[in-house]
Every structure is written in C-alpha cells, then in structure tokens.
Amino acid sequence: MRPASFSRRLSWAVALTGALIVTATPAHADPEPSTKELRTQAYKLADQLEQLTEQYNGLKVKLQQSQRAAKVATDNAKRQEKSLEGVREKVGSLAATSYMQGGADPTVSFVASQDPQRLLDQAATLHFFATQDGTRVQGLMQAMQAAQRARKSAEERAKQVSQLRAQLETQREKVTSLYEKVRGRLVKKDPTQLAKLPVVGSGKAAQALRYAMSKIGRPYVWGAAGPSTFDCSGLTMWAYKQVGISLPHYTGSQWNAGTHISRSQLQPGDLVFFHGDLHHMGMYVGDGKFLHAPQTGDVVKISPLAGRPYAGAVRVA
C-alpha cells in the first residue's frame, strides 16, 4: 500500500476527534448549569472519551504492525545487499581470470596445450558462470531496489501512524480535562452524582474500578472477599481479580503489589491506603474521592480522601 493511501485511511481518526472536541465543549450561555445539564455533558464527554480511547488503542496496534513490517523490510534489504556484494566479488574474480587467460592468442594456447579439451571446458565454464552471474547481478539489483522501496514505505507508514497517535493522544487529554472539569462541577453541586457517573479509561485499573463500583451498597463483612460482601482489602482483591490480576487479601501485601505513586498522580482504580499501619484501603475514584468497604455495620460507598490519615497510593495496572 502506498504511504499516501495509508495516511488517508488513518486520517479519519484525527478528523473525527477534532469534531468530538468541538461538540464536547461545555456551553457558556448558562454560567450556572443545572445538575441535569452537567450530568448530560459529563455522559457525552465520557462517551466521546471512550471513542477516542478505542481509536488510540487501534492506532497503537497499527503502529506495532507497521514497526514490525519496517523491521522485516529492513532485514530483507540488508540480505539482498549482502547477496549482491557476494556475487559482485565472484563476477569480478571470474572476469579477472578470463582476462588473464585471454592474454595469449587462443589458437596458440589451444595448440600448445597438453590438454586442449580441458582448456575448452575451462573457457566454456568461465563464460557460462560469467553470463549466469551477470544475469543474477541484475536480478539481485532489482530485488535490492524493491526491498529498499519496501523498507522506505514501511518506515514512512510507521512514522505516519506514530504522528496520528500523538495527535490523538493530545486530543484525548483535552477531552479528559473537560470531563474532569464538568465532573468536578457536578460533584460540587451534588456529591451523590459521582457514583452515578461512568468510569473513563480502558486500562485494567479503570476496568477493576467499574467492577468495584457495581458493589456500592453491599455490606461490609470482616474477612469477606465477595461477591456479595466485602472487607476493605477483599473488595480491591475481588475487583482486580475480575480483570485477571491477583492480589493478596491483606492491605500490607497489596501495598507492595505495584508502583508507589504520589497523591498528585492518582488515577481512577489506583489503590489508596490509610493509617501508619495501613489497616484500611480503597480504590481512587476521582475528584478527591475513593471507593471502600469501611467497617462493620457500613456498606461499600464513596468517601472523600480529605480529613483521613492518608498513607500513600499504589498503581497496580
């Protein structure tokens, strides 16, 4: 496929995402939108963010494929160049031999030779291989040129996908920022709305949080790990198990199950821990809130991080 054609087939992503951002911009006609209006904007932005994420993931796959194709084409071009160089040396050696043997008069050489037939056979053999290798050189040169064209095309394709992926990531970040602003305004008006909003993102952490959010209202039971009742580490263990990640049923072990991150780096699905002995934990939801199974007599719910003895956070996926 020619690079220009490939670029046209991929450019739809950037064009579409540009349109999404335009339609996603919150209206400024009403400086104080209602809870319903903010919720509608949040859902639209979340839906558009999912579209952008899937397009981004698709381009990520295409980039990997293009990079593999470029490597294969480069390796093929190198092999063709090596083969051509070897035949060139062989042809040069044959030409030198033919020239040296042709220095004497062929008739004299034939008469003076003690083995005329061997001389004839040798001359014919040299001529045959010189002719054959000359043809082979032409074929190898054509193959090498084709391999170099394929390499250049594959590298250009990978470059195009990489550029589109970068543009799409920039646009995805813009929509994410808009979503977080709208979500923040909505939660400020009505904190209960946070539990009703969709969890954005396609990573395993976001997927695990979606599973955990489905358990809001389920009772806390000491030592329970689902699917109907939970304690704090049992809830996070169960949620991550649903996306193929095994966590131990113990806050101290989960503290060491991933990468420690700062509070400013928190993303939905990250594990958050409290108290010096890490005896309580939950999953970050966003907007300074986290999901957890608090204590006996309570239920799985969303609470603010503020005012709690925050100990740190861990990113599992």
TrEMBL record:
Keywords for this protein: Coiled coil, Hydrolase, Protease, Signal, Thiol protease
Q: Which domain of life is it from?
A: Bacteria
Q: Where is the signal peptide?
A: 1-29
In terms of PROSITE patterns, this protein maps to:
NLPC_P60
Write out the coiled-coil annotation as residue ranges.
Answer: 35-90, 137-181
Describe the location of the NlpC/P60 domain by residue ranges.
202-317
GO MF entries = cysteine-type peptidase activity
Q: Which InterPro entries does this one have? A: NLP_P60_dom, Papain-like_cys_pep_sf, PG_Endopeptidase_C40
Give any single GO term for biological process: proteolysis
UniProt xrefs under Pfam families: NLPC_P60
What PANTHER family does its record include? Answer: NLP_P60 DOMAIN-CONTAINING PROTEIN-RELATED, PEPTIDOGLYCAN DL-ENDOPEPTIDASE CWLO
Q: Which family does it belong to?
A: Belongs to the peptidase C40 family.
Q: What is this protein called?
A: NlpC/P60 family protein
Give the species: Actinomadura rudentiformis
